[in-house]
Specification:
Elements: E1 4-16, E2 19-26, E3 29-35, H1 37-40, E4 48-52, H2 54-58, E5 66-70, E6 85-87, E7 95-97, H3 108-112, E8 121-124, H4 130-139, E9 174-179, H5 190-197, E10 203-206, E11 215-216, H6 220-229, E12 235-240, H7 257-267, E13 271-275, E14 278-279, E15 289-290, H8 292-301, E16 307-312, H9 315-325, E17 333-338, H10 342-347, H11 364-379
Length: 382
């Protein structure tokens, strides 16, 4: 289950908030490693480290690091302060965090009786790579400046639902609710760190077993409520963390949580907007056009209605996407969203756009579909 290795830190390659990337040597040779200082302390060149090399041996793309489990000769200090939520529970690296919804939190009173998102638009997507693309569509040609720190830490005819231009009103605050279907530490996502630095995200909320966000919450429900009532968000985006898990079966993929997120948003009085996972370049037939992930999560798992953003893509491929999406009209409202101007908006992303190793021009349809959901959500704020 776990490949254990002893190693030595050779050099620090780079770092971003919450994570340090290292070069290490082991009995197998040199390797790239990742450490989370909040968990294990900050390794330095010359330190001996205990490593989990399982993902490295498997050749995983997203998580292909040797993970630093401990710096045994220089352990970090014991944690201080409140916090009774245990995440990554009953694993060797279980960690205690302060949850926004727990009794010791300054926000406990706010969240104790909170029961509504007040109609806040919430954009739901399958993959973590959709996050920056959604933001590009949301902001369009008017990206935000760096915000102040948060106080707390049935298908109609296409023309009937046409959103010809992005809305003039732009949300002041956007919160990201990170589900636990992929990476558990939010620190793994360099995109999150860069989007916050650029002022495109007001904060990250980690829910379930995920941890390391600006705000911690027990469930997706309290995470959504914290987005609204703790971070003061105008819009929230919900996806899993990096590292989607799929098995090539109808139900065996971590993105089923996208359908469950629609249910949570609806029961809390939010306005769920679903981004389709679309690809013209994936080598797997089940993901060409509208991915079976979207068709299952939105068509079978989601029991509450949502607005599905259908990008108006050109040509035969665009017709294929529209036809596949039509299956979702049994429960949901399909909103045809034009994509004019979205390519230029995507080019302005403050982070590198990449999905399954493919960049913007290599799988343009994927990023346009995600940006279309952001564009539609912006129109709901006008």
């Amino acid at each position: 289950m776990i490949r254990w290795r002893r190693g030595e830190v050779i050099r620090i390659r780079r770092e971003w908030p919450g994570a340090v990337e290292l070069d290490v040597t082991t009995e197998d040779g040199s390797a790239r490693a990742l450490a989370y200082p909040a968990l294990v302390g900050r390794p330095e060149p010359g330190d001996a480290v205990l490593l989990n090399t399982t993902a490295l041996a498997m050749g995983l793309g997203t998580g292909g690091y040797a993970m630093v489990v401990a710096v045994p000769d220089r352990l970090p200090e014991d944690p201080h302060g409140p916090g009774h939520l245990v995440k990554a529970r009953y694993t060797p690296l279980q960690a205690t965090v302060l949850g926004a919804d727990e009794q010791d939190s300054p926000f406990h009173e706010v969240l104790r009786d909170a029961d509504s998102l007040d109609g806040m638009p919430v954009i739901i997507a399958d993959l973590h790579s959709a996050l920056p693309a959604i933001l590009c569509g949301l902001y369009g040609s008017h990206p935000p400046g760096r915000p102040s720190p948060p106080d707390g830490a049935g298908s109609p005819e296409p023309d009937a639902r046409d959103r010809a231009e992005p809305a003039d009103h732009r949300p002041a605050r956007v919160a990201y609710v990170m589900l636990d279907g992929g990476a558990l530490p939010a620190w793994f996502s360099m995109s999150c760190a860069q989007l916050k630095e650029a002022g495109w995200l007001s904060g990250v909320i980690t829910v379930g077993q995920a941890f390391g966000g600006d705000v911690e919450a027990v469930t997706s429900h309290t995470g959504l409520l914290a987005a609204r009532h703790v971070l003061g968000a105008d819009v929230a985006i919900v996806t899993q963390g990096p590292g989607n898990l799929g098995t090539g079966t109808r139900w065996g993929f971590s993105g089923v949580s996208a359908g469950e997120a629609i249910n949570a948003v609806a029961v809390l009085g939010g306005r769920p907007v679903a981004a389709l996972r679309v690809s013209e370049s994936d080598r797997r037939e089940r993901h060409i056009g509208v991915s079976h992930h979207s068709l299952t999560a939105y068509g079978r798992v989601a029991l509450a209605p949502a607005q599905i953003a259908v990008p108006r893509l050109p040509g035969e491929f665009g017709r294929r996407v529209a036809e596949q999406a039509a299956a979702l009209a049994v429960r949901h409202e399909l909103v045809q969203v034009p994509v004019d101007g979205l390519y230029e908006a995507l080019q302005g992303s403050p982070v590198r756009l990449s999905t399954m190793g493919r960049g913007l021009d290599e799988d343009l349809a994927y990023f346009l579909a995600s940006a279309a959901a952001g564009r539609h959500a912006a129109s709901l704020l006008s």
